[in-house]
Write a structure and sequence with these properties.
10 strands; 233 residues; alpha+beta; 37% helix
Length: 233
Amino acid sequence: MTEVETCCDECGSELEVGQTGSCDDCREYTFGELNESAKNKARDAMRYTEHYLDYEWWDGVYEDANQIAKILGLDIEETKTRAGNKGTYNEINISFSGFCSQGDGACFHGRYSFNPKGVEEIKAHCNDEELYRIATELHAMQITQRLLGNEYFSAKITTSGRYSHSHTMSVEIPDWGCDEVGEPDEDQFTQFMRDFADWIYSALESENDHLMSDEVVDMQLEDEKFDVSGSTI
């Protein structure tokens, strides 16, 4: 059996790997024992490794957005996706890019039809002023149609181009023969859809900020061992 090289005891150096010498430079540290400079080094090494956040961390935001979309009257399209030997699952067709370039954002495509209870259901679901505003504005558009003697309108929402932000989205409201005065305002409706896509992006950015925060990264580092500089051993 090869004898394990040690040293230090204060301070014949060598050691490393699982080093525990007696001097400050050669002993191993828990994350909590590091000074702030060494902690920051350890945090950055964790945050920017290719394996950190290498899972679909946005799934929870997508699911919440999909639930809210249904309340607003939106049916965001889903794609059946195969998951290896585990069968298939429905993938929500929301796309995003982020979070540091001017063209970053989120978009979706699907269909819209009026939910008469949308405003009260949004109010019961969450306390979010932007979502409440969108629900209220959509409701007002539909009530205006009825006051003009028209049916409630529906719409198709599509995206175009290779970018993922709200301005890639456009809408099509079918023309069922009402006169020009009674036609729903497509530009106004498009803006509401883009506002919702921007809300989704804001939720994604908040979740990403949370996962990249010191508080969450520190939890990932609790069981690691470090040298005095903050490098993992």
